[in-house]
Design goal:
three-stranded antiparallel beta sheet
């Protein structure tokens, strides 16, 4: 199961502790070295290639979550202003979280997640022929 491991510093578990700035992390789902800075967001929390994340935050950037398990991208959510967000599901505790996409996220991976429900409808496609 993928886990994103910070390379340069250990992440604090609670906001009251000393908050060191992480410059990069390694995605163990795909192994990419990921810079912590991301275009379009102040808190990169997922790999721009495979879109997997790690359950680190209760609120964006606080690093207060006690879980630490990997989070699989399961859906794309379009916010009221048209901005896309990735919906992640925690493989450890089952939490769901919507996270802003970054400007360098893989567009093909985002589209695969967005169209997945259309590729697997809950009814047989030949049902449309009967209409």
């Amino acid at each position: 199961m993928p886990i994103i491991i910070p390379e340069e510093v250990s992440l604090p578990r609670h906001p009251s502790r000393d908050r060191a700035r992480v410059r990069s992390f390694r995605c163990v789902h795909c192994g990419l070295d990921v810079p912590a800075d991301a275009p379009g967001t102040a808190h990169r929390n997922h790999c721009p290639t495979c879109l997997w994340s790690r359950h680190l935050d209760d609120t964006p950037g606080d690093r207060a979550a006690d879980c630490g398990s990997s989070m699989t991208p399961i859906a794309v959510h379009v916010r009221h202003n048209g901005e896309w967000a990735l919906v992640h599901h925690c493989t450890g505790c089952g939490a769901l979280d919507a996270n802003r996409i970054a400007g360098d996220d893989n567009p093909l991976a985002l589209m695969r997640i967005a169209v997945a429900p259309l590729a697997r409808p809950p009814f047989p496609l030949d049902w449309f022929a009967r209409l």
